[in-house]
Design goal:
single chain, 244 residues, alpha/beta, Rossmann fold, 4-stranded parallel beta sheet, 13 helices, L-lactate dehydrogenase complex protein LldE
């Protein structure tokens, strides 16, 4: 299976190890991975700030880079959701719509397309899972606790396949971390308090690591942990699933 790897700009700039782990993991699982070299920002920051009309260049570039692939996979739920919901290409909207239906967040690709039921990964640590809002409520990678419906979690299902990992139970397992993209800039005080509450839930239950499918949320939590001089670390789920 040939897939295109979509690496969001903040992953590329701040957490390249997440992109490398994603690449290695997909290859371990039998995928032939291509990395379109001219890819850049998907346009989400502008759209989130109310400037969707400024994303036309990003949209056109995304179409140029990712047209023709059967699957496009990214280790970022928020960027994937943006592409799924907002990719526009007036010159040929049909191509854009095809791409929108072929882009996947990593954990949904592993569970829904590859149907992974076995991993060789080993991660002997206590881990708390942060369910990012874009993944949970936008991409439906896990069930929302406010719904009276059967529980499921695609990240949790994959993590359960990892040897020696111990997943901790949180009091508020799907609470927002407060990052919210530009919200963290416009409402920094509220964002910081929400992040501190999210961190405290993990610490209270003895987590050594906090993991999730969105590096932006993990970056926010990592900043708080560092300021508190906490020994708790953050790690993207791709790094755990790829661990040996």
């Amino acid at each position: 299976m040939k897939v295109a790897l979509f690496v969001p700009c903040y992953v590329d700039q701040f957490y390249p190890r997440v992109a490398i782990a994603t690449l290695e993991l997909l290859e371990k699982l039998g995928c032939e991975v291509d990395f379109p070299k001219d890819q850049t920002c998907c346009g989400q920051p502008m759209a989130n700030s109310g400037f969707q009309h400024l994303t036309t260049g990003c949209d056109a570039n995304f179409v140029r880079n990712f047209r023709g692939y059967d699957y496009i996979v990214s280790p970022s739920g928020s960027c994937v959701l943006h592409v799924k919901d907002h990719l526009h290409f007036p010159e040929n909207q049909g191509i854009a719509d095809t791409i929108r239906h072929r882009v996947y967040e990593l954990t949904e690709f592993l569970t829904d397309v590859l149907k992974v039921d076995k991993l060789t990964a080993r991660f002997p640590h206590r881990v708390g899972v942060h369910q990012s809002c874009h993944g949970q409520r936008g991409l439906h990678t896990s069930q929302m606790s406010e719904l009276n419906a059967p529980a499921f979690s695609k990240p949790g299902q994959l993590l359960s396949l990892v040897q020696d990992i111990e997943l901790v139970e949180l009091d508020r397992k799907d609470e927002c971390c407060g990052f919210g993209g530009t919200f963290a800039v416009a409402e920094e005080a509220v964002s910081s308090k929400m992040g501190k509450d999210r961190v405290e839930d993990h610490i209270r239950h003895g987590a050594e690591y906090i993991t999730g499918g969105d590096v932006s949320c993990l970056m926010h939590l990592e900043g708080i942990l560092r300021r508190q001089q906490s020994p708790v670390k953050v790690v993207h789920i791709a790094e755990i699933l790829n661990a040996e």
